[in-house]
Amino acid sequence: MSLFRTALCERLGIEYPIVQSGMGSVAGPDLVAEVCRAGGLGILAGLNVPPDDLRKMIRHVRSLTNRPFGVNLWLHKALRPPIDPTSVPEETLRGAQAVLDRFRARLGVPAATPTRPGRGPDLVDAAVAVVLDERPPVFSAALGTPGPELVADCHRRGIKVMAMVATVEDARTAAADGVDVVVAQGGEAGGHRSVDGKPASPETTSLGIVVLLPQVVDVVRVPVVAAGGIADGRGLVAVLALGASGALLGTRFVATRESLAPEIYKKRLLESESGATTLTDVITGLWARALANTFTREYAASGAPVLPPLVQRGVANDVYTAALKQGDPEYFPMMAGQSVGLIRDLPGAAEVVHTLVREARAVLDALPRRVRLS
Question: pTM surpassing 0.90?
Answer without folding.
Answer: yes
